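Sanity check. The docking grid for 2-acetamido-2-deoxy-beta-D-glucopyranose depends on where the pocket ends up, so I'm generating a full predicted complex first rather than guessing from homology. Inputs follow.
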Amino acid sequence: MKAALSGLLFSRKMLWVAFLMLRLWGCHGDFTYSIPEEMKPGAVVGNIARDLGLDNGGLSLRSARIELKGSRKRYCDLNLKTGELMIAEKIDREEMCGSKTCSLKYELVMESPLELHEIILQIQDINDNSPHFPSDEIKLSIPESAVKGARFSLDMAKDSDVGRNRVQSYTLGRNDHFSISVHSNADGVKYSELVLDKELDREEQQELSLLLTAVDGGSPQRSGSATIHVTVLDANDNRPVFSQPVYKVSLSEDSPVSTLVLTVSAVDADEGANGEVTYAFSLVSDKAARLFTIDNVNGEIKVAGPVDYEDETDYEITVQAKDGVGLASSAKVIIDVTDVNDNAPVIYVKSLKNPVPENAAVGTEVGIINVQDDDSEGNYQMSCTIQQNVPFKLISSIKNYYSLVTTGELDREEIADYNITIIATDGGSPPLSSSKIIKLSVSDVNDNPPVFEEQSYSAYVSENNKPGSSVCSVTARDPDWRQNGTVFYSLLPSEVNGVPLSSYLSINGDTGMIHAVRAFDYEQFRSFKVQVVARDNGSPPLSSNVTVSVFITDENDNSPQILYPTPEGNSFMTEMVPKAALSGSLLSKVIAVDADSGQNAWLSYQIVKSTDPGLFTIGVHSGEIRAQRDISESDSMKQNLVISVKDNGQPSLSTTCAVYLLISDNLAEVPELKDMSYEENNSKLTSYLIIALVSVSTFFLTFIILIIAVRLCHRRKPRLLFDGAVAIPSAYLPPNYADVDGTGTLRSTYNYDAYMTTGSRTSDFKFVQSYNDNTLSAGNTLQKHPLDNSDCLDFTDAGSKFSTLVNVF
Ligand SMILES: *[C@@H]1O[C@H](CO)[C@@H](O)[C@H](O)[C@H]1NC(C)=O
Ligand SMILES: *[C@@H]1O[C@H](CO)[C@@H](O)[C@H](O)[C@H]1NC(C)=O
Ligand SMILES: *[C@@H]1O[C@H](CO)[C@@H](O)[C@H](O)[C@H]1NC(C)=O
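Predicted complex below; grid placement will be based on this.
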């Protein structure tokens, strides 16, 4: 095929040569040849000799030579033999002339004669160069925002050939976005522009590769190509897009701070800063803004404060996502707060009757309780209870309201204060409860009378007490409060022995101390009773009373009193003693009484002086004077004895008396009796005795008159009056005795006791012969008897009677 091609080329050269020779022939010496470039060395351009009309040897004869002007290269040689101009070295038109018209000018010099011809060798272009781009790859960066029709100039392709062999056109490989537009500049050079036919989207396609081909107009045609590498540049044409338009989330109200609530996320398709999303709350209530925070980078919404269902049950927040350039979009976040049983019920005391009077009826409403719980539904169902051991209960009235009522009697004196614990429990799981203590006081009502500590009181006061001395103290207690329990004492007015009680006793109203107002006399009365009233200060007041028995105890304030022998100093009171009286025979008896009682009235007798000591003895307790030995003739006829009678009190009191004894069988023998009495040196003693007896008698007399008057006055009935004379002989001679019984009634017509031993319980008048069983047993009774007779005064009792039997003589 190559051989065929070169054959073709050769035949074309032949045609050209013929054509040029014909043309040049007429130019008179100057020869112009036109040859294509790139001919092989040795190729014949033309036959100069023939064109000059010379013979085959003619050129060599004339020493013809050719010279190329201005170049050291020859490119062609002249064959002198044949006269042919031949290619000596390959001619590259592009190298030699570039884009200009290319020709070589030779001078043909011949000698003999010198002849100069110009030979012009015109070099014709052949399409031996392909178009080519400066680089195989054309890089283009086109923003995606570029509009349709935008043009982007492209590098030109180069082709060293000229004319039609230059680049004639550009083509672009198939694609969706671009087309090519080809232009020629002033020099006729073709260039191309890339035209955007359809907008780019970086997010769809980031890069494109296009094949750009340049073709020339030669024949055969040549082409060159390059790859256009289009990088689509990002434009901030996308907003951030949230993954959901609305986010809904539930949040338990007890969530602690920094609990993650949810994460919102928005995506921006753009690149770089255009695609960097930041988050923020855009529409948010102040409250929600305090409770939640959003992380502006990762979109995490977290709890920032105490979320309380009872405060707000849901929050709606608009969240905005913004890219770096400022395109934004928003989404809604709804946070539902769920209730947790975090609120214990609260107990309110709406009203309270405090204090409650202790006499409040069972079922009295004392207070109203209200229970509230902020939680919802199940967490809200409540129950309310009270502790068991109090006399109160709760009655559920209206919803969540309870009445506190009494279930039993209240007694302030037993329990004055109650701490009532109310417990409210809700229905949550776990249930919460709370409690409240209500302090309730019970107020006093005067429901307790004063109560004496003892059922009755007895007081013992010795007679001759000092006025104002305390007798006894009574105490009454009242458990009520303050004035309802303040006790005042008083004596119930009455009379004692016809005299108002107040002149005997007084009471300290505050302390209950009973004082004597005057001195008491045992011999006057021995006991009496008073009623003490204790009254509180309530309104109305309550009172109670108690009996105080006052017993007056005896003191030895009365001396023994001699009844016989009469202390009048009567010298006739002389005892006759038979001369033949034997040892031990009863000769006489001293009779004495004592107004006191008991030991104080227990008398003892003693001979303190005698004419003939040893002749007589006296019974210590009986007062009987007996002969100690047989009386003899030698004994003096007149015998005087001084006898002391002493009671047993502390200190004891005593009285003395004189006894005159006459030892004689015949009264006629009695000489000067008078002398006898005066003979004694005891006239002083006698006068004392007389004074004593008279005064005692007077006292008793007065006293008896008084008593009888009282009795009469009381009974309005005539009483026996006794013979008031202190006539001892007539008194002791009758062999009867008087008895005053417990009722004070005289049983006998004659009463010694009444005036002699008032108040005596015992008498020591004891005569051996005249003893009577009754009087003995009664006389020995020394004990006190309870005073139970209706009279205020007790003169005698059964055991106090004494008998006086004077029949000794
Ligand atoms: C009630 O409670 C108080 C203390 O709050 C206590 O001093 C008092 O003794 C209590 N009373 C009763 C009856 O429990
Ligand atoms: C005493 O009792 C009366 C009712 O009997 C009552 O009204 C009053 O308040 C009580 N006084 C005190 C100090 O409690
Ligand atoms: C003394 O108390 C008794 C009951 O204890 C009562 O019957 C009597 O009336 C009271 N007397 C006075 C004077 O209050």
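Relevant for the grid: The radius of gyration is 86 Å.
Also worth noting: Residues 492, 533, 545 surround 2-acetamido-2-deoxy-beta-D-glucopyranose (ligand 3) (CB under 6 Å).
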